[in-house]
Amino acid sequence: MTPDTQLDFAPDLLKKIIQDSLNEIYLCDGETLKFLFVNRGALQNLGYSQDELRQMTPINIAPTFSLAQLKEMVQQLKEGAEEKLTFQTMHRRKDGSTYDVEVHLQFYTHKDKSYFFGIILDITAANETAAKLEETLAEATAAVQAKDNFLAAMSHELRTPLNAIIGFSQLMHNSVFGDLANQRYKDYVLNILNSADQLLEMVDEILLARKLEIDGIKITGEVYDPIEHTAEIVKMFADTPRRDGKQVMLIRDATAPKLVTGDRGVGNVMQSSIISDALRHTGENGIVTIRWYSVNQETLKCRVEDEGEKYPEHVLQSFGEQFLARDAFLASEKHKGFGLGLYICKRYVEARGGELTIGNREEGGTFVEASWPAANFKAQF
């Protein structure tokens, strides 16, 4: 069945559909722009009679357009530069009230006469919804900004007393002004020092995680030796005199790259966070190892292992999320963290096209391993 025979099949039905449509439908003279036909939807929306509208042009109901502007616009249709024009404007009713519309306009010629055919949609409700969404978004943005300001202020207010607690605790722990007579007091000082360090680390992680959400990840490129860089981080942990006999060891693997192009600052954040988590998790006198290595000089890996307890599988799946799931948190009381450190590391690793894997070691303990294509770091072996 051809389009023509389809139209012939039910001409009265098609006329009824056009006539009774609740969308506004207009047919205008191609030269004078006067309305030749206006359907029921247009009559109801505008409040004019059919006879009144037949004496008018679109200019009479679209106050935002002048006759010159309208003719310039429809000239594109007449010249064939455009098959259809779609634009938004405003219609004015007989009583003077206005409403927002979206116009779909086409140009036709038939038996040496030309016509403009328009279907108009009332978009007042849609625009009102969009305005409400924008208002809600603005309120949400303001709330987020207020939260960020609060976090920044709290960061300063928390760091100041925490740094004082850490500083005085270090003095007491190191017996700078004389030894503490009672061993129990020494143990208390060590607990204070460890707790303050942990709290300060959590504050820093919360702020850094929020900063990543707002600013994204910006990574610079510099050439450096990843092994020596990691050795500096390991030394920093080795010089901390309060690890219950725990050790951090750097394993120098022969397959490790000699140089990489990356961001030392990001490397500091990642490795320090993972090592710190591993030290909290490993047992007393336990050993945390960190190793850089490669697979056929194609895949670059950095792996941190600890000697703590194994985690249940459902707990492992929660690590790397922005916050640990509640059951994971409760199941990892010895870990004492929110999971933000691993979330931050995961974001950094993925930003360089890598993958962060967290799992249990067969011989006991857990591991965290970052893996990237070696080409992403321009690794030199």
TrEMBL record:
The entry's keywords: Kinase, Transferase, Two-component regulatory system
The name this protein goes by in its record: histidine kinase
Record EC number: 2.7.13.3
Superkingdom of this protein's organism: Bacteria
Pfam families, sorted: HATPase_c, HisKA, PAS_9
All residue ranges annotated as the PAS domain in the record: 10-53
Catalytic activities: ATP + protein L-histidine = ADP + protein N-phospho-L-histidine
Protein's organism: Sneathiella sedimenti
PROSITE patterns given in the database record: HIS_KIN, PAS
Domain Histidine kinase: 153-376
